[in-house]
Amino acid sequence: QGRMWAYTVGFTVLPHLGGFLGWFLNRKEIPAWYQQLKKPSWCPSPRVFPLAWTVLYAGMGYASYLVWNDLGGCDSKAIVPLGLYGAQLALNWAWPPLFFGARSLKLAMIDILCLDCLAIGTACAWYRINRLAALLLLPYLGWLGMATCLTLRIWKDNPEPAPAKSE
């Protein structure tokens, strides 16, 4: 029982690590490049993103702890539900470097579409294990839906320059 709080905190904090790293590595691109992009009127203020991701990462991290705990740790029963979670988390963490770092709107769009599928798969797999864990992913899925629409709109409204032709 004494160790369980450490596992709870560890699982809850884990998603924040990649999120923070993604922000830290790409923070200079936000004012330098992102602010110059054409964005739809419904694009959230840049101040909303850190707050939203803090809440969403905490919810998904705690939910992953619930699933891990209900499955009794990382044994064979946990491979699919926690594997889906890990895969979607990796794609989540990959989005900022693709979008901001590489400035590749197309790759960011492909990433977020794959992320959407894995996040939905994670929620479905978790629902059979722990309904609360699956419900804790609903705000994340909603935010991903908005983020997917935003990524698509930005990609469509900001065509990437064609490579220079060599003579």
Automatic annotation (TrEMBL):
<dbReference type="InterPro" id="IPR004307">
    <property type="entry name" value="TspO_MBR"/>
</dbReference>
<feature type="transmembrane region" description="Helical">
    <location>
        <begin position="78"/>
        <end position="95"/>
    </location>
</feature>
<keyword id="KW-0472">Membrane</keyword>
<dbReference type="InterPro" id="IPR038330">
    <property type="entry name" value="TspO/MBR-related_sf"/>
</dbReference>
<feature type="transmembrane region" description="Helical">
    <location>
        <begin position="47"/>
        <end position="66"/>
    </location>
</feature>
<keyword id="KW-1133">Transmembrane helix</keyword>
<comment type="similarity">
    <text>Belongs to the TspO/BZRP family.</text>
</comment>
<feature type="transmembrane region" description="Helical">
    <location>
        <begin position="135"/>
        <end position="155"/>
    </location>
</feature>
<feature type="transmembrane region" description="Helical">
    <location>
        <begin position="6"/>
        <end position="26"/>
    </location>
</feature>
<protein>
    <submittedName>
        <fullName>TSPO protein</fullName>
    </submittedName>
</protein>
<keyword id="KW-0812">Transmembrane</keyword>
<dbReference type="GO" id="GO:0005741">
    <property type="term" value="C:mitochondrial outer membrane"/>
</dbReference>
<dbReference type="Pfam" id="PF03073">
    <property type="entry name" value="TspO_MBR"/>
</dbReference>
